[in-house]
UniProtKB/TrEMBL annotation:
Protein name: Nucleoside diphosphate kinase
Function: Major role in the synthesis of nucleoside triphosphates other than ATP. The ATP gamma phosphate is transferred to the NDP beta phosphate via a ping-pong mechanism, using a phosphorylated active-site intermediate.
Gene Ontology terms, MF aspect: ATP binding; metal ion binding; nucleoside diphosphate kinase activity
Similarity section: Belongs to the NDK family.
A single cellular component GO annotation: cytoplasm
Active-site residue numbers: H116
Its EC number(s): 2.7.4.6
InterPro entries linked to this entry: NDK-like_dom (IPR034907), NDK-like_dom_sf (IPR036850), Nucleoside_diP_kinase (IPR001564)
Length: 138
C-alpha cells in the first residue's frame, strides 16, 4: 500500500476563504505536505483531470466549476493516506458527510464540495504527477 494521496482545495473553498483552515486541519490530522502549489485549471486541463467522469451527467458542470477560479493542489503523505484522507474530507455530498469532516464544515453542495481526494493508490500517483514533477516532491 502506498502512503501518499493527492488533494485539491477547490475554487469554492478558495473563494470563501477556507484554504488556511483546510490546510490546518489536514496537517493536524497527521498528513505531511510532499508538494503544494496554487494554480488554475483551464477547461481543457480540468476536463483531462476528470476524464474518468466524461460520460456522467455532471461532467460539464464539474469542468466549468473546477476551472472557475484558483485551486491549491497538494501531494500528502501519511500511513494509509488515501483512505484516511477520504475519511477526513467526508462524503461527496456535504449533507451526507459526517460531523467534523472538511466537506461538512466547508462545502455547500455536491457539485461545489471544497476538496478533492484521490480514490485509490494508483489514481493518487496519476493525479500527483498531473500537477508535480518528481523534482517538486520532497
Ligand atoms: P473527488 O473526486 O472530487 O474527490 O470527489 P468524490 O471522489 O467524492 O466524488 P466523484 O464521484 O469522484 O465525483 C467527482 C466530483 O464531481 C462532482 N459531482 N457532482 N452533481 C452531482 O451529482 C455530482 N456528483 C459528483 C463533485 O464535485 C465530486 O467531488
Ligand atoms: Mg473522485
Amino acid at each position: 500500500m502506498s502512503n501518499r494521496t493527492f488533494t485539491m482545495i477547490k475554487p469554492d473553498a478558495m473563494k470563501n476563504g477556507h484554504a488556511g483552515a483546510i490546510l490546518d486541519k489536514i496537517i493536524k490530522a497527521g498528513f505531511r505536505i510532499v508538494a503544494l502549489k496554487q494554480t488554475k485549471l483551464t477547461a481543457e486541463t480540468a476536463g483531462a483531470f476528470y476524464a474518468v467522469h466524461k460520460e456522467r451527467p455532471f461532467y460539464g458542470e464539474l469542468v466549468e466549476f473546477m476551472s472557475s477560479g484558483v485551486i491549491i493542489a497538494a501531494i500528502l503523505e501519511k500511513d494509509n493516506a488515501v483512505s484516511d484522507f477520504r475519511t477526513l474530507i467526508g462524503a461527496t455530498d456535504p449533507a451526507k458527510a459526517d460531523e467534523g469532516t472538511i466537506r461538512k464544515l466547508y462545502a455547500a453542495s455536491v457539485g461545489e464540495n471544497a476538496v478533492h481526494g484521490s480514490d485509490s493508490d494508483d489514481n493518487a500517483k496519476i493525479e500527483g504527477s498531473f500537477f508535480f514533477s518528481g523534482l517538486e516532491q520532497y
